[in-house]
Design brief:
The complex is a heterodimer. In chain A, 9% of the residues lie in helices and 52% in strands. By secondary structure, chain A is mainly beta. Chain A has 2 domains: 1-32; 39-192 and 285-370, Porin, CATH 2.40.160.10. Chain A has a 16-stranded antiparallel barrel. Chain B has one domain: Periplasmic binding protein-like II (D-Maltodextrin-Binding Protein, domain 2, 3-Layer(aba) Sandwich). Helix content of chain B is 34%, strand content 18%. Classes of the chains: A mainly beta, B alpha/beta.
Chain lengths: 371, 162
């Protein structure tokens, strides 16, 4: 047992600690400050498969056998807890076990996606403190929660620009304080949502930069969005400003990002788009996407085009993805997604590995369960 | 060319089969609804606008004006086809959403840390009991199941009146 503990040192302690926390909360019952009816546990699990056409290399090189036969991926096993500590205080946590966490899997990880406390003075004023997914655009707070979006992944040129030859348009996480709330417009059914936050800034000297104790960089961000009655129209703007440490010589590179989003929903049809511009030092990145979908019973076909220009002064470094897919709600708690992605890349996109095709197709499928 | 094809695909997807859900949705809560909204008799609120009720049931209004947090209840009626259940009727008439849309809404809300959906009960009697025992609660039941006592009917003000 001791040997096992030693081998699984970090993962065991984290997993065990979280399990113990859950056990304590569940067993606490009525003697706890938060009774059982105040504790809710949610989660999701998904299994994915993808295979590419053309010469698409992995970092391990063109001989990687996975590239020929595709790859399964037990992508997420995530557990969320939502605890009403008192009528005004909520504690919300989200822990992710990603890519079949195991010591031999270098890309696997256990991550606390968020863990924050929230005090509600009223519906119009709440204060939140802790580690949170940065409020930015439509999908940043949904992040990896596959049941909450139609496609296999959120728009990657926008939300995963760092994997598309660009830089992260805004940090995924922040640790700090936020004020947020909803205001009714003219006492009508329309709302305005706001959130304003200040937190640790970006640093590249740790894998957990938002929580780095000695991170001297700080950042501020905000999002304002209008939500019409019935969510027919959602329109908003987001902003982020901070410093990013790129190297020991460049500890405070200014990072300023702005974005706008628009979502139109009419009956079962939806059209959503976002546009973002992020300036990191002298590099300006532009990215946008547009997605359309129509719900027909439990079937929702969707199509999306997404584009990134990682550096507006570098010609031919773009990455464009056009995709079409189908989301099937098999049951209320199970989704099946299949889609085809067409990728086109400019020859100067920095994500291209020497020798591989600039353009390629990719079949993706996923089964998602939620609980 | 690929971009043009993609845009054409986008247009086709958005325009093509829009019809299926149209007839199911109403623009405003129906004065002749088969449902009644109920609260505890001790709740000082006598009426709500349709907009206020919608915000309560979408988790956007968490507190009564008298200070207590709101506990909202859904009636799913397990023995009835889901599309004809009280929750489906309530969703269309009062929240302007089809049931699948409402479910999607709560999935997004839960997984982005924005709150919790209503408590769910399977029978009108369970809703009546819960609302009778909790002054902060609000629920809905079928009109035929309404029996005054420790509960009262909440008047919902629409464009058409109460």
């Amino acid at each position: 047992m001791i040997k096992i503990f030693a081998n699984y040192n970090y993962k065991f302690s984290f997993t065990t600690a979280y399990s113990l926390l859950l056990a304590v909360l569940i067993s606490a019952g009525s003697s706890s400050a938060a009774g059982m009816d105040a504790i809710n546990i949610y989660g999701y699990f998904d299994l994915g498969y993808n295979i590419t056409t053309g010469d698409r290399y992995s970092k391990s090189g063109p001989s990687d056998p996975n590239l020929k036969n595709g790859a399964f991926d037990q992508r997420h096993l995530n557990i969320l807890t939502d605890i009403m500590v008192s009528p005004n205080i909520a504690l919300r946590t989200h822990v992710e076990f990603e890519h079949g966490i195991h010591p031999s899997a270098d890309s696997a990880s256990v991550v606390m996606e968020y863990g924050f406390g929230e005090y509600a003075f009223s519906d119009t004023l709440k204060i939140r403190g802790g580690k949170m997914l940065s409020p930015y655009g439509i999908y940043s707070e949904i992040h990896d929660a596959t049941p909450a979006y139609l496609a296999v992944s959120p728009p990657e040129t926008f939300y995963r620009a760092e994997f598309k030859g660009g830089h992260m348009i805004a940090p995924k996480w922040t640790t700090g304080l936020a004020i947020l709330g909803e205001l009714s417009l003219f006492s009508s059914r329309h709302d305005v949502e706001y959130v304003l936050y200040v937190g640790n800034g970006e640093s590249r000297f740790t894998t957990n930069e938002s929580e780095q104790d000695d991170n001297p960089n700080k950042s501020v961000g905000a999002r304002l969005q209008f939500i019409s009655a019935g969510e027919v129209l959602v329109a908003g703007v987001s902003g982020f400003m901070g410093d990013r440490a790129l190297s020991q010589e460049e500890l405070r590179v200014p990072h300023i990002a702005v974005a706008s989003h628009l979502s139109l929903t009419w009956k079962g049809a939806n059209l959503t788009g976002e546009f973002g511009r992020s300036q990191m030092g002298s590099v300006t990145e532009i990215t946008w996407y547009a997605q359309a979908s129509v719900r027909v019973g439990r079937f929702t076909p969707y199509a999306r085009v997404q584009v990134i220009d990682p550096n507006d002064t570098t010609p031919d470094d773009f990455w464009t993805v056009t995709l079409g897919g189908l989301n099937i709600m098999v049951t209320d708690a199970m989704f099946l997604k299949v889609e085809w992605n067409e990728n086109q890349r400019g020859k100067r996109n920095t994500d291209i590995i020497s020798g591989e095709s600039r353009n390629f197709g990719e079949f993706r499928a996923a089964v998602t369960l939620m609980f | 060319m690929r971009i043009i094809r993609a845009l054409a695909l986008l247009l086709a997807v958005i325009i093509a089969p829009m019809a299926p859900e149209q007839s199911a949705l109403a623009e405003e809560p129906q004065p002749n609804s088969a449902l009644v909204v109920i609260v505890n008799i001790a709740n000082p609120v006598k009426q709500l606008s349709a907009g206020e009720l919608e915000k309560i049931y979408l988790g956007k209004r968490g507190f009564w004006e008298w200070g207590k947090p709101i506990k909202m209840i859904d009636l799913i009626e397990e023995n009835i086809n889901e599309d004809k259940s009280a929750r489906a009727i309530f969703s269309v008439e009062y929240l302007d959403k089809s049931l699948p849309s409402l479910k999607s809404y709560w999935i997004r809300a839960i997984f982005s840390g924005r709150g919790q959906p209503p408590l769910v009960f399977g029978k009108s009697g369970d809703v009546l009991n819960y609302v009778s025992d909790n002054v902060e609660a609000i629920g809905y039941i079928r009109k035929k199941d309404f029996t005054p006592g420790k509960i009262k009917r909440m008047e919902i003000i629409t464009e058409h009146g109460p």
